[in-house]
Write a structure and sequence with these properties.
10% of the residues lie in helices and 35% in strands.
């Protein structure tokens, strides 16, 4: 069976609102998956989610399964310096979930790779 790794915050057009609400806790993996539609021949899991990943803009995968996630706290409207980063997400224990998060690069507003 094919496997889809879903980055939690890429679930909706406004991912930050879907995962973070004012004075709300991040969604659980189960709650996240209820918001996702996918073909029945696929299996979906949550690979990474807040607080480790927030405000994602893009993802890129390396051949060995490491995901690089561009996070921009400025969103599409703000322009404050130093609020962007690329996070390297690794599954070191091979359970299908990222367990090591490293700030790979810092910048103002990442937009893609």
């Amino acid at each position: 069976m094919k496997l889809i790794k879903i980055l939690a915050a890429t679930l909706a057009l406004n991912p930050c609102a879907a995962v973070f609400g004012q004075n709300q806790q991040p969604l659980t993996a189960e709650a996240i998956l209820k918001k996702v539609s996918y073909p029945s021949e696929f299996e979906a899991t949550v690979f990474a989610s807040p607080p480790n990943i927030s405000y994602p803009i893009f993802i890129s995968a390396s051949p060995d399964g490491i995901l690089f996630v561009g996070c921009d706290e400025n969103g599409s409207l703000d322009r404050k310096a130093g609020r962007g980063r690329v996070v390297m997400c690794q599954d070191t224990d091979h359970d299908g979930k990222a367990d090591k998060f490293t700030d790979f690069a810092k910048m103002d507003s990442p937009r893609g790779v």
